[in-house]
Specification:
The complex is a heterotrimer.
Chain A (H helix, E strand, L loop, with lengths): L4 E12 L2 E12 L3 E5 L6 H8 L7 E6 L2 E2 L5 H6 L2 E4 L11 H8 L8 H10 L1 H5 L10 H13 L5 E5 L7 H16 L3 E6 L2 H7 L2 E6 L2 E7 H4 L3 H7 L3
Parallel strand pairs in A: 3-8, 3-9, 6-7, 7-8
Antiparallel strand pairs in A: 1-2, 1-4, 4-5, 9-10
Helix pairs in contact in A: 3-6
Chain B lengths: L2 H25 L7 H17 L5 H23 L4 H21 L18 H20 L2 H11 L1 H6 L4 H27 L9 H14 L6 H15 L8 H15 L7 H21 L1
Helix pairs in contact in B: 1-5, 1-8, 1-9, 1-10, 2-3, 2-4, 2-8, 3-8, 6-8, 9-10, 9-11
Chain C lengths: L1 H31 L6 H18 L4 H28 L3 H22 L6 E2 L2 H4 L4 E4 L2 E4 H23 L1 H11 L1 H6 L4 H27 L1 E2 L3 H16 L4 H21 L5 H15 L10
Antiparallel strand pairs in C: 1-4, 2-3
Classes of the chains: A alpha/beta, B mainly alpha, C mainly alpha.
């Protein structure tokens, strides 16, 4: 099983000055799974994602991606080694076109990415139609499709999504999760953080419950979704 | 007291007032470059009023302040709508405009400058008094409701609006007060130099004001008491061979301060520490009694 | 009629130079949130470096051109680390003051060390020597035509770079949303320096075009151009590349017309007065700020 481990987070702590955002978190993600990080606001989900991708410095602990220690690596290098991010709120480059956003998704690639571009337009014809439109003019759901497409332009091995269902209409939420499952089945490893615990656990393989920066629970998603503590805290039960 | 010493002191006094003129708009976050424009107005008014109209010193000073207020109020109306970079840059235009206007007005000397401004006996004492009065005014303003309003505008203009502060009115007020001080400074300068040129009130001067404000301590009114005498006295401290480089040294000091210690030399933290030391010592004495 | 056309050409040539200056400054605004007031001073200094080369190399024009271009790049990149602490803490307003400091240092260096501050004259072979090209009944100054062509080329190449290349998109992405740009793997440091480098190359090009049009260089030129460029940048809208080009060109024309047909003594006041009023009326600029 070890050879299939894609991401390992060991004993990770992140401090903002005196304030502890993440405390001694252990996490592992295996190839081809979808792992959900759930928890309420301020639980540390975003901080965890930002630290993995290199935007936030870890105070102590270790992060390993595909066997390589990426704890102190710059975002640039982490992304180049095969990790992509879909930021919270989608992170649209609003005044740039759909096409330009996609092209920037392939920024760190030196080779030709036309194939990937065409795949995106196949999967999401609407992006193809709107490719010369400014990204800011798209609807929320379309922007999310664009953000995900942008993240896979670089042919990553793993993508991190920060609250993908945020501010999306219920119809789109299911759409987006189904797309993620599709991508997972094509071999992509997915880690996502969500406040919408029900959907996240519904579609993912395993989950970690974060509370005040620590891992409170972890396990198979179908177990977590039946767990009484989880139900009362996050599933409105 | 030697003449060069009085000359230097009056000069310092005028520039302390000018830097206060720049300080006040900055309290509400505005980098206002019209201070030099007001100085030009004050200076030329003083020169003209005292030389050609023969008005006595006190009348001229008050007149300069009034004229400064009026001619500063008008652009202030426009600048109430702008902020940040836009205000800073468009107020630069005022400098060019006033220089151009002065050059075209021959009755105040035009490009040749305005010379023969009458001497005022004991100018150094008057300047000292004026500086002290202005200092007290600035202090009271800073610590009043208005001062607090400025502070909140600087911190977060939108927040300030929700607190009921009329940002536009406050901006105009701040800029007008600044204009009065600028003109006052110009008048004192004119009486000291006894000859002024349009070129005097240009970019070099503007940069000097910025340097004095930012190096001294941009968030307090005491910083310039330090930076003005030092910066203007600099040519006297450095060896004669380097006196050509004075401007370059100012530039470098400004750059270093902005890069490394942006708040300036006299920061609020420093002031608090000094206050603690002073009041702390007092407390100890009381306890022992 | 001939004077009118000649004035138009003059206006277009100067307008073209303003346009390139605004373009360079807009680039620096986009890349690092810097209002680089001393960009024009760097141009003048590069011109002076070219002059020095001519003096030392017995009027070797090719060498002078190369030195001018390199000076532009080097001097601009040197300012990057100076501005970096301010960019990092988002102190956009202070960058103006910082840039003014740099500008004054450059002006002083030119006044003190380069020809003692006197006018620098360039050989007529570089300035087109008032050569005229005659089309029909109208003669055009060669210098103006070359300058205009140079401006158009430079603008087109720069726009191509910004809109059609990977690095150009990266620079625009950084300007749009720094956080997202970092999340896409765009390196803050390297991309910034690239932006400065390109602005620097542009500065060198502008310097050469200025040599052609102006023919002389004085220490005070830096301040004059700096204020005009910065004001024009705000006039169009900070960060607005296309708007900046158009309005700078237009103002160049307006200035030339005003110089020719209005009583000379008031042109400056009117020029600045009008622009200032427009900026106050529309703080976002005529075409909107892309910033």
């Amino acid at each position: 099983m070890e050879q299939n481990k894609v991401l390992t987070v060991t004993d990770l702590s992140v401090y903002y000055g005196q304030i502890c955002a993440i405390k001694k978190v252990d996490l592992e993600v295996y190839k081809g799974e979808m792992v959900a990080l759930i928890g309420s606001n301020g639980a540390g989900k975003s901080t965890l994602i930002n630290t993995i991708i290199g935007l936030q410095k870890a105070s102590t602990g270790k992060i390993t991606f595909e066997g390589e220690d990426i704890t102190r690596l710059s975002s640039e290098k982490i992304i180049a080694s095969g990790v992509s991010v879909v930021p919270e709120g989608r992170g649209m480059l609003a005044t740039m076109t759909v096409l330009e956003n996609l092209q920037l998704g392939a920024y760190h690639r030196k080779d030709d990415y036309t194939k990937e571009l065409n795949k995106v337009f196949e999967r999401f014809p609407i992006l193809g139609e709107r490719k010369n439109q400014k990204a800011g003019t798209l609807s929320g759901g379309e922007q999310q499709m664009l953000a995900i497409s942008r993240a896979i332009m670089g042919n990553p091995k793993m993508i991190l999504l920060d609250e993908p269902s945020l501010a999306l209409s219920p119809a789109y939420v299911d759409k987006i999760f189904k797309i993620l499952v599709e991508l997972k089945n094509e071999g992509l490893t997915i880690v996502l953080s969500e406040q919408n615990a029900r959907k996240a656990l519904q579609y993912s393989d395993r989950g970690y419950v974060l509370d005040l920066g620590e891992v409170a629970l972890s396990g198979a998603s179908e177990q977590l979704i039946k767990n009484p503590a989880v139900i009362s805290a996050y599933l409105g039960g | 007291m030697s003449t060069s010493m009085t000359y230097y002191l009056i000069f310092c006094g005028a520039f302390i007032i000018l830097t206060w003129a720049a300080y006040i708009p900055f309290r509400s976050g505005l980098l206002y470059n019209g201070t030099v424009y007001c100085m030009a107005i004050g200076g030329y008014f003083a020169g003209f009023a005292s030389k050609t109209l023969g008005l006595p010193f006190p009348v001229v000073i008050i007149g300069a302040m009034l004229v400064g207020a009026l001619l500063g109020f008008i652009p202030a109306l426009g600048f109430s709508r702008t902020s940040g970079v836009v205000t800073a840059v468009s107020s630069m235009a005022l400098i060019f405009i006033i220089q151009s206007v002065i050059r075209n007005m021959d009755f105040i000397g035009g490009s040749r400058g305005l010379s023969g401004i009458p001497k005022v006996e004991n100018l150094v004492i008057y300047t000292a008094i004026i500086v002290v009065i202005t200092g007290i005014f600035v202090y009271r303003l800073d610590h009043s409701r208005i001062g607090r309003a400025f502070e909140s505008i600087q911190t977060d203009p939108d927040m300030a609006k929700t607190l009921g502060i009329n940002v536009k009115k406050m901006t105009i007020l701040g800029l007008t007060i600044s204009s009065v001080l600028g003109a006052l400074s110009g008048a004192l300068y004119a009486y000291n130099m006894r000859i002024i040129y349009p070129e005097t009130f240009g970019f070099s001067l503007l940069l000097s004001v910025q340097t004095m404000l930012f190096v001294g301590g941009r968030y307090t009114q005491w910083g310039m008491l330090l930076s003005v005498p030092i910066l203007w006295g600099l040519p006297g401290w450095i060896p004669k061979s380097m006196s050509n480089y004075a401007q370059i040294i100012y530039g470098i000091i400004l750059i270093l301060v902005l890069m490394l210690r942006p708040e300036g030399i006299i920061t609020r933290e420093l002031l608090n520490k000094i206050k603690k030391v002073i009041t702390g010592k007092n407390k100890t004495v009381n306890v022992n009694q | 009629m001939e004077t009118f056309v000649a004035q138009i050409m003059n206006g277009l040539a100067t307008g073209g130079i303003y346009a390139l200056l605004v373009l360079g400054m807009n680039l620096l605004v986009l890349v690092r949130n810097i209002v680089h007031h001393s960009y024009s001073h760097i141009v003048m200094l590069s011109m002076a470096m070219g002059w020095l080369t001519l003096q030392k190399s017995n009027n070797n024009i090719i060498l002078a051109i190369i030195v001018t271009l390199i000076s532009g790049i080097v001097f601009t990149i040197i300012t990057e680390p100076i501005f970096r602490p301010l960019s990092k803490r988002g102190a956009e307003l202070e960058t103006i003051v910082l840039a003014m400091g740099v500008g004054i240092i450059i002006t002083e260096i030119m006044s003190q060390f380069i020809n003692g501050g006197a006018n620098l004259a360039y050989p007529s072979s570089m300035t087109g020597a008032g050569l005229q090209i005659n089309i029909g009944l109208i003669s055009f100054s060669l210098a103006n035509i070359l300058t205009l062509i140079g401006c158009v080329l430079a603008a087109v190449i720069l726009m191509w770079f910004l809109f059609r290349t990977r690095e150009g998109r990266a620079i625009r992405a950084m300007a749009q949303n720094l956080r997202v740009a970092k999340m896409l793997g765009i390196p803050y440091g390297k991309t910034g320096i690239l932006g400065f480098g390109i602005a620097g190359l542009l500065a060198g090009v502008i310097a050469i075009l200025c040599i052609m049009t102006l023919g002389t260089n004085t220490p005070s030129l830096g301040d004059t151009f700096a204020v005009k460029a910065i004001i024009l940048m705000l006039f169009a809208g900070m960060g607005n590349l296309k708007g900046g080009l158009i309005s700078a060109l237009f103002m160049g024309l307006v200035e030339a017309m005003a110089l020719a047909y209005l009583p000379g003594r008031w042109t400056e006041a009117v020029f600045y007065g009008v622009i200032m009023l427009v900026i106050i009326w529309k703080p976002q600029g005529l075409f909107g700020s892309q910033h």
